[in-house]
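Quiz preparation item.
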């Protein structure tokens, strides 16, 4: 019997690889498209003749749609089978990509992005829920780390590939590239994807959907606009106030509803709540820091988008390679050593990023960024996986949705916060420099007179014309130095955020979470197509049933 159990288990395991591969391939296509588009924003402004504030809605609209959909993914996962839901999501993403690729106007382009996001927003929570259902807690780390390959390898190749395509081809190619990938994944899903989630067909919580849509949508909008318009802008304040009010209503609704759309009781599990908090703080530092580096490289130092993408490439590749490694280490040694090592590296490298100058070499910035991403690779998937291991199996879909939503909000807050700090501190530093740059300052006045004479002689212009040229030169140089100082201040705050995460991680349990009665190993159900899978009852023993076909099923015997 023991040999039969082992053979049955190994046969069941053979089905998991193709399922996970299909899900990862879909997530890779979605994330690749998003990173491809980021570099193309200036070209889209020219193509559609729109302002920077308007074109930013291509990213804002995508993010808002994701933020609205994530809270209802638990309902969708319980209502539809794995294959139906994933194929629907990939189809929506493909249709949206096609609309964007042929968009004649900006409104059509924005519609395409929203249709894309409607599909992409479902993929990540669904993929994580499938992993939680397929693998027991003690082996989930490696599997979740494999998911990290899609999350981090796509950003690795995206900016560089986008810069090359825009330089040699049209921006429309950015969408045509992902359409074949999405179509291939849909075909693979029809062939390999099986249902591995339980269908309970819950009733739709209309009030929960309305309050979450308005609350998370308004709050995400407020945070996204705060980085551009400032925290005091009317739309920002209105978005934050409305968002907070409706999120409070959403929380009250979900805690009092008999069958909530998103079961917030997952936060009763201490290690899940702590891991969500640490992961959120890490996301604040990671997303904000990832935005500051391209600003420094492109806007201040004058490197091209392609050169900026090449600078970020090694760090993203390292993160993609290390993600499954760190996941395997989580299974072996637990979370605390990984969290401490990763956050120490992240904190130290972020602090060194706060010491940039106008002469910092390209190679030095690349080295710092790569080491920083190496530290982040120990954190990105492992902390979230650790938290999800501490909730019962029946709450997997709610846990993944809640965890993703919290991380998304934290990333938006961190980006808005660090951009605001950079902007405000840049203005402060410029004001201090302007005070010194007064003609009443003998040293500065002498320097300006010398520069004016040299420019007038070199250009063959009058002194008055040369003074205007020198004034522009001085303003540009001063603003560059003020911007570098503002970026340094923002990175210093990011280092403080990373240090806070390090302190919080010390309270995380260092031991591995062993399988319990609520975390039993469930082999892949031998269902095909869209056959539903029921939630098994608690078991006392495991009976191996070997039918006369080649498929092997491990089913529990109910009490």
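Solution:
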């Amino acid at each position: 019997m023991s040999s039969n159990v082992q053979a049955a288990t190994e046969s069941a395991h053979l089905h998991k690889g193709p399922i996970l591969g299909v899900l990862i391939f879909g997530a890779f296509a979605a994330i690749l498209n998003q990173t491809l588009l980021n570099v193309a924003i200036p070209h889209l402004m020219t193509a559609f003749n729109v302002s920077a504030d308007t074109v930013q809605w291509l990213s804002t609209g995508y993010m808002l749609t994701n933020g609205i959909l994530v809270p209802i993914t638990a309902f969708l996962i319980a209502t539809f089978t794995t294959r139906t839901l994933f194929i629907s999501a990939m189809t929506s993403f493909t249709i949206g990509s096609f609309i964007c690729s042929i968009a004649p106007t900006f409104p059509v382009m924005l519609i395409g992005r929203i249709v894309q996001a409607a599909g992409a927003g479902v993929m990540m929570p669904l993929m994580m829920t499938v992993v939680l259902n397929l693998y027991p807690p003690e082996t989930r780390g490696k599997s979740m780390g494999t998911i990290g390959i899609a999350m981090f390898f796509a950003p690795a190749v995206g900016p560089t590939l986008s810069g090359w395509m825009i330089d040699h081809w049209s921006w429309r190619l950015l969408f045509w590239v992902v359409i074949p990938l999405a179509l291939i994944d849909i075909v693979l899903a029809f062939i390999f994807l099986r249902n591995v989630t339980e269908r309970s067909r819950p009733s739709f919580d209309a009030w929960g959907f309305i309050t979450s849509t308005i609350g998370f949508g308004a709050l995400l909008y407020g945070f996204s606009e705060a980085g551009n318009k400032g925290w005091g802008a009317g739309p920002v304040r209105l978005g934050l106030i409305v968002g907070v009010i409706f999120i409070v209503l959403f929380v009250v609704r979900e805690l009092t509803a008999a069958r909530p759309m998103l079961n917030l009781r997952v936060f009763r599990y201490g290690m899940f709540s702590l891991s969500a908090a640490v992961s959120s703080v890490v996301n604040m530092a990671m997303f904000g820091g990832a935005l500051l580096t391209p600003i420094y490289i492109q806007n201040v130092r004058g490197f091209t988008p392609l050169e900026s993408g090449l600078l970020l490439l090694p760090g993203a590749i390292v993160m993609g390679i290390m993600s499954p490694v760190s996941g395997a280490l989580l299974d072996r040694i637990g979370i605390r050593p990984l969290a401490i090592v990763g956050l120490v590296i992240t904190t130290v490298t972020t602090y060194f990023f706060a010491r940039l100058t106008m002469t910092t070499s390209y190679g030095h910035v690349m080295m710092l960024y790569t080491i920083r991403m190496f530290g982040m690779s120990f954190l990105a998937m492992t902390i979230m996986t650790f938290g999800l291991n501490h909730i019962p199996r029946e709450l997997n879909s709610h846990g993944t949705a809640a965890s993703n939503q919290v991380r998304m909000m934290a990333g938006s807050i961190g980006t808005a916060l660090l951009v605001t700090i950079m902007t405000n501190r840049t203005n402060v530093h410029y004001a201090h420099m302007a005070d010194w740059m007064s003609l009443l300052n003998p040293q500065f006045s002498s320097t300006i007179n010398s520069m004016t004479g040299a420019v007038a002689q070199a250009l063959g212009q009058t002194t008055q014309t040369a003074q205007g040229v020198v004034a522009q030169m001085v303003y540009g140089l001063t603003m560059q130095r003020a911007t570098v100082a503002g970026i340094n201040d923002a990175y210093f705050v990011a280092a403080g955020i990373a240090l806070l995460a390090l302190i919080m991680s010390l309270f995380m349990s260092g031991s591995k979470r062993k399988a319990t009665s609520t975390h039993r190993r469930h082999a892949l159900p031998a269902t095909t197509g869209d056959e539903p899978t029921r939630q098994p009852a608690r078991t006392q023993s495991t009976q191996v049933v070997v039918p006369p076909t080649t498929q092997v099923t491990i089913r529990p015997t109910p009490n």
